[in-house]
Amino acid sequence: MITHGSSIKIFACNSNRKLAEDIAEAVGIPLGKAEIGRFSDGEIAVNIFETVRGSDVFVVQSTCAPVNDNLMELLIIIDAFKRASAGRITAVIPYFGYARQDRKAKARDPITAKMVADLITTAGADRVLTMDLHATQIQGFFTTPVDHLVGQPILVRHFKQRGFSEDDDVVVVAPDLGSVTRARDFASRMDIPLAIIDKRRPKANVAEVMNIIGDVRGKTVIMLDDLIDTAGTLTNGAKALVERGGAKEVYAAATHAVLSGPAIERIEASPIKELVITNTIPLPEEKALQKIRVLNVAPIFAEAIDRIYEDMPVSTLFE
Predict the structure, then answer these.
(1) 229-281 residue pLDDT tens
(2) What is the rounded CA–CA span in Å between residue 76 and residue 45?
(3) How far is residue 29's CA from residue 9's CA, in Å, rounded to a whole number?
(4) Residues 199, 239, 248, 273: which is the catalytic one?
(5) Is 230 strand, coil or helix?
(6) Bridge partners of residue 196, in order along the sequence
(7) Of 173, 164, 311, 170, whose CA–CA distance to 252 is shortest?
(8) Is 18 an active-site residue?
(9) How far, in Å, CA of 51 to CA of 57, rounded?
(10) Where are the domains of the chain?
(11) Bond from prior residue into 66 cis (ω within 30 degrees of 0)
(12) Dihedral sign computed on CA atoms, order 85, 146, 97, 284
C-alpha cells in the first residue's frame, strides 16, 4: 500500500476500465478523474479533470480490439499528461497489441511492434509496464525502461489449488514449438512432465497439427500459450491430444484472451474441459462461456505499480 506523501495517480482509458478500477483499489487510491470520448467526426477527445503537475502518473490501457482506437486513446492521453507537466508517465499496457508483428517474416514486411513502441515513447511515456509480451525482444524496441510481468505464477497457483501438481497423470503441453520455453517453465513450476505438439501452419490463422512429442495417453493435459486469438491452434491441438494422443482430459490456459473471429464457437465445440485466462483483456458477456475461467491480474499490477513508485525492484514479482 502507498504510505508516503508523494503524489501518485492512476488513470484509465476505455479498453479495460474494470481492471484499472481493481488496480487502483488494490493500490489504495481512487481512480483519477478523466474522460475519453469522441468528437462528432470520430476524433478522440480527452478531458482530465484534476491536476497531474509533478505527479507519478500511471495510465492503464490494453491495446486490444478495437486495437487502433485503443492505441490512439493511449497516445493522446499520454500526450495530455506530458503537456500538463506530469512528473513521470508510466504506460500500463496489460495486453500489448501488434506484438506478433515483431520481425520480418518475409520481404517487405513491417515491424509494427517497433513502430508502436516508438509512438508510445514519442507521445511522452517515461516507462512501460506490461505482461507476457508475445515476443520478449519487444522490450528492446523501447528506449525507455520496460517492466515485463509474467502471468505464469497466477496460472500455476490456480492449477496447484486444484491439486494438479500432486497428480502424476498430469502433463503440460506446448501447442506449438514457439511455446516450448513457456510451457517448460510452467511444467517446472508445477513439477509435472512436458509434451509438445509439432504443427505446420499452411497460412495465417490456419493451424494443422502434425505430431505429438511426448506421452499423453490416459493423462490429463494442460495446454499453455501466451494468447488465444482465433483458437485454431488451441482447439486443433486439443482434438489431436484426445483423438490421436489418447489424452483423458484437456484443460487450457493463456494470459491473453483475444478470442477473435470463430474463437468462441471453436472453444465451445472443442474437447477442452476448462479454459483459464486472465483479465488483461476484458471478456464480453457474449463470450463468457461456462467453460471459461477468468483470473484477476490486478493484484500483481498493483504491486508492480507500488514498487515502481517506491523505486523498488519489480523482478521479485517474477517468482
Answers:
(1) 999 989 999 999 999 999 999 999 999 999 999 999 999 999 999 999 999 99
(2) 9
(3) 8
(4) 199
(5) coil
(6) 174, 213
(7) 173
(8) no
(9) 11
(10) 8-150+298-318, 152-295
(11) yes
(12) negative
pTM given for the model: 0.93
Q: Which residues contact 188 (CB under 8 A, 6 or more apart)?
A: none
For the chain, report the end-to-end CA distance as a whole number of angstroms: 20
**Spatial distance between the Cα atoms of 148 and 92, rounded to a whole number of angstroms:** 10
Phi, psi of 125 (to 5 degrees): -70, 130
Q: Which CATH class is domain 152-295?
A: alpha beta
| DSSP classification of residue 86 | B
| Angle 167-172-177 from CA coordinates, rounded to 5° | 165
Split at pLDDT 50, 70, 90, the class of 315 is confident
Q: For the domain bounded by 8-150+298-318, which CATH number is listed?
A: 3.40.50.2020
109 within 8 A of 100, measured Cβ to Cβ: no
Coil vs helix vs strand at 123: helix
**Residue 152, C-beta contacts closer than 8 angstroms, at least 6 positions apart:** 182, 185, 186, 189
Per-residue pLDDT tens for 63-79?
999 999 999 999 999 99
Dig out the grid coordinates for 272 from the structure: 477442452
Closest CA to 175 of 233, 98, 255, 92: 233
The C-alpha cell that represents 236 in the structure block: 486443433
Under a CB-based contact definition with an 8 Å cutoff, are residues 95 and 134 in contact? Answer: no
Backbone phi and psi for residue 252, each to the nearest 5 degrees, phi listed first: -140, 150
Q: What is the pLDDT of residues 19-56, one digit of tens each?
A: 999 999 999 999 999 999 999 999 999 999 999 999 99
Amino acid at residue number 84: A
The string of DSSP codes covering 22-67 is: HHHHHHTSPBP-EEEEE-TTS-EEEEE-S--BT-EEEEE----SSH
